[in-house]
Amino acid sequence: MTRPYRSVLYIPASKQRALEKARGLAADAIIFDLEDAVLPEEKAAARVTLARFLAEVDYGPRLRIVRINGLDTPWAREDAAVFGGLAAVDAILVPKVDGVAVLDAVAGMTDKPLWAMMETARGMLNAGVIAAHPRLEGLVMGTNDLAKELGSRFRADRLPMMAGLGMCLLAARAEGRVIIDGVYNSFRDHDGLRAECLQGRDMGFDGKTLVHPDQLAVANEVFAPSEDEVALARRQIEAFATARAAGQGVAVLDGKIVENLHVAGAEAVLGRAEAIAALAD
Ligand SMILES: CC(C)(COP(=O)(O)OP(=O)(O)OC[C@H]1O[C@@H](n2cnc3c(N)ncnc32)[C@H](O)[C@@H]1OP(=O)(O)O)[C@@H](O)C(=O)NCCC(=O)NCCSC(=O)C[C@H](O)C(=O)O
Ligand SMILES: [Mg+2]
């Protein structure tokens, strides 16, 4: 059964109320952020606060990812030293990954699985080798930093992002990695969030990074298989089994062909639905 990644919530490590609140939130994963959401003068205190919360709070089945500061900052090594060895940390997220050297460096500081922020122009161009890094588990799109580097403007259709999103998706799928879409900044605009989640889901992303708890319900709904999709998956599996028993390699269901590749897709849908149901238990 594969773990769901529908909703991946950022929490600034400096915000105690948010760290407290997160234990009851319906996020599939949490990114505890030491980087951009934390002011330079608060970095050291945020590290201490986060280490205490991770030691004391049970975040349940949520994947616990810590985003450390960039290796070109004075905080990264201490971040990796503290959180790279904590049992309550499932993975280390490295910001602004532009090639494999930075992953090699962090891999030398911790044994945890690594995740990469994909948010620089060079990172897009090197997506294939980054995704192939042997310690890498997942990629997270950083569309704010990418837009800043590109000099692109916000568009609801995300046309300026498409080349980068597509390259990272190809790289993630080629290497069998998890890939999570970027954040939607207007956190009170749920219609805009839904449209962007639908776009990301249809492109193939596993889920969406989020900045506010009010965004969780939309992402959890959009990135979960719907009841209709689950029912169709069951019917496809059944139709193909019937065709196979009759000595045929292709079934026809609702006027469409069903081949073994569609059965694999249907099984993946059922696996995701099962994993989501198991989280709710
Ligand atoms: C965006 C916010 C600053 C808004 O905060 P606030 O005005 O306090 O919101 P609310 O009053 O509506 O909050 C209601 C309650 O929810 C809790 N809360 C708020 N945000 C979170 C959160 N992220 N996780 C958990 N809980 C949260 C508040 O504490 C309130 O609780 P209560 O008191 O019980 O009512 C704020 O949401 C925020 O700081 N969000 C995170 C911002 C962040 O992490 N940014 C960095 C990541 S984005 C990024 O860097 C992407 C990438 O790198 C790129 O380049 O694109
Ligand atoms: Mg960023």
UniProtKB/TrEMBL annotation:
Pfam families: HpcH_HpaI (PF03328). Its cofactor is Mg(2+). It comes from the Bacteria. GO terms for biological process: oxaloacetate metabolic process. Keywords: Lyase, Magnesium, Metal-binding. GO terms for molecular function: lyase activity; magnesium ion binding. Substrate binds at R67, E119. Residues 6-213 form the HpcH/HpaI aldolase/citrate lyase domain. Mg(2+) binds at E119, D145. The keyword Glycoprotein does not apply. InterPro entries: Aldolase/citrate-lyase_domain, Citrate_lyase_beta/mcl1/mcl2, Pyrv/PenolPyrv_kinase-like_dom, Pyrv_kinase-like_dom_sf. Belongs to the HpcH/HpaI aldolase family. PANTHER family: CITRATE LYASE SUBUNIT BETA (PTHR32308:SF10), LYASE BETA SUBUNIT, PUTATIVE (AFU_ORTHOLOGUE AFUA_4G13030)-RELATED (PTHR32308). This is CoA ester lyase.
